[in-house]
Amino acid sequence: MDILQIIDKKKNGNALTKQEIQFFVDGVCSGAIKDYQTTSLLMAICTKGMNFDETFNLTISMANSGKTLDLSNVGDCIDKHSTGGVSDTTTLVVVPVLASLGVKVAKMSGRSLGFTGGTADKMEVFKGYNTEISTEEFVNLIKQNNASIISQSADFALADKIIYKLRSDSGTVENLSLIASSIMSKKIACGAKVIVLDCKYGSGAFMKTKKDSIKLAKLMVEIGKKAGIKVCAVISSMEQPLSNYVGNNFEVYSGLQVLNGQKNDLYKLSCHLCSLALVKSGKSQNQTEAQKLVEQVISNGLAIEKLKQIVKSQGGSTEVIDNPKMLLKTTNQIDIIADKTGYISAINTAGIGTISHDLQKINGEVVRQDNTGIILSVKLGSYVQKGDKLATMYYNNLDNLRELNTELQNCFTIGKKTKKSKLIDCVIE
Ligand code: URA
Which residue of the set 10, 167, 193, 361 is catalytic? Predict the structure, then answer.
């Protein structure tokens, strides 16, 4: 087989065979296929597309291109995956809730990527928490505590790691087949038997429209089913940050608030994801029964106790779980003020994520600072008067404070009409 023929075939709009896709993935991992050849094929895929069989074959080849995890001796494990958003702290809630209900959760999480946050970074807010434990320890902790949260190891789906970087550097990220195979290859390699996907759409998501988010969800659900996994996808809005808190410490604070019973959008979405997981895994007969169980373990404190156990077992301090207000300790702050009266009609959510990211920059480089971020005072549809506070920006040292201040102000559109936003749109099964 020859990579140039494969590129030519795709360039002419023809479907690749399973063997050709396997040859491509093998060549990417061994280095036999050069980066410029890979990007050339990726660009051809972006322009000509892939059918379902090609997308499935690419997913499976990538899933098998690195380490795979066999969780069969642990029992059926659940995994939950969000396509990425701003102030999305559902994992911090979903994992302890499910684990406290006796469901096993194997959660490998990503780091912050562009404007989106990463759960692995947030777990490290618990001082000493080790996200880099071995897979053996990961499996043992799932047996012991029903759950473990670690950072996604690069050893899994090796081809995706190489291809993802090239996609990111060559303008070939935005293709449904490439996105779906990238996400599902990592999920399949991690061995879960039930996967609940949270597919975001809106200004703070990779998929800007609901239509595209549904298309991606349908594709991932079909891939999962064909791979023998029980999978469903929630379509949820990222037209505004999920909670009012953006930034590592602040987001952990908002997750703890929910585990302490505060009912807001983060609570609603987390409960929905948990109840779907309970039904899919056969632990509940229906959504209503599942929702009750979820609400129970939050209100009786079992879920937050489970979080403490998970954190302690991985070397983390539980001090901030006992005293969440510690997470709000900051140095400098500046309020962002409404320059006119009206309704919040749009929020540039990706913009808010980017500014939160930029608040950590020192001399142009991001130097992790967990106590920086943004706390919003408004949601979509809020009525504000000129002079009201829209948000507060928290920072340590900044040379470009004025710029970020203006940028943050511009993230809020104030219009004449109120704006309704539906958090959860539908479920794809
Ligand atoms: N997340 C992934 O893991 N891959 C993509 O392609 C997009 C988001």
Answer: 167
Across 101-105, average pLDDT: 97
C-alpha of residue 213 to centroid of ligand 1, in Å: 13
* Joined tokens for residue 29: 């991992």
Integer Cα distance of 378 and 344 in angstroms: 8
Q: According to the model, what pLDDT value does residue 127 have?
A: 98
182 lines ligand 1 (CB under 6 A): yes
365-366 and 373-376 strand pairing: unpaired
The pLDDT-based confidence of 421 (bands split at 50, 70, 90) is: confident
DSSP string, 33-47: S-HHHHHHHHHHHHH
In the residue annotation, 357 being an active-site residue is answered as: no
Q: Which alpha helices (DSSP H) does 281-410 contain, by range? A: 287-299, 302-313, 319-322, 349-358, 401-410
Whether 229 has a pLDDT exceeding 90, the answer reads yes
Query: Residue 133 phi/psi, 5° resolution?
Result: -70, 165
- Indicate if the alpha-carbon torsion angle 198, 203, 205, 207 is positive or negative: positive
Hey, which bits of 37-103 come out as E strands? Answer: 77-82
Any residues with CB less than 8 A from the CB of 417 and at least 6 apart, and which? 343, 345
Sequence length of the chain is: 429
Confidence grade of residue 67 (pLDDT, cut at 50, 70, 90): very high
Task: For ligand 1, atom 3, name the residue with the nearest CA.
Answer: 183
pTM: 0.95
* CA-closest candidate to residue 149, choices 83, 88, 79, 84: 79
* Residue 167 annotated in active site: yes
| Exposed / middle / buried, residue 260 (Cβ in 10 Å: 0-12, 13-18, 19+) | middle
Edge-first strand order for the sheet with 342-347 is 383-384, 342-347, 412-415
Nearest to 177 by CA among 339, 10, 398, 354: 10
3-class DSSP state of 428: strand
The 3 state secondary structure assigned to 266-303 is HHHHHHHHHHHHHHHCCCCCCHHHHHHHHHHHHHCCHH
Q: Both tokens of residue 371?
A: 């106590």
Q: Rounded to whole angstroms, how far apart are CA atoms 110 and 153?
A: 9
Residue 79 has pLDDT above 80, yes or no: yes
Q: How wide is the angle at C-alpha 249 spanned by C-alphas 247 and 253, nearest 5°? A: 110
Residue with the two structure tokens 């979820």: 294
In this predicted structure, the answer to whether residue 91 has a pLDDT above a threshold of 90 is yes
Q: Which residue has the least CA distance to atom 2 on ligand 1?
A: 183
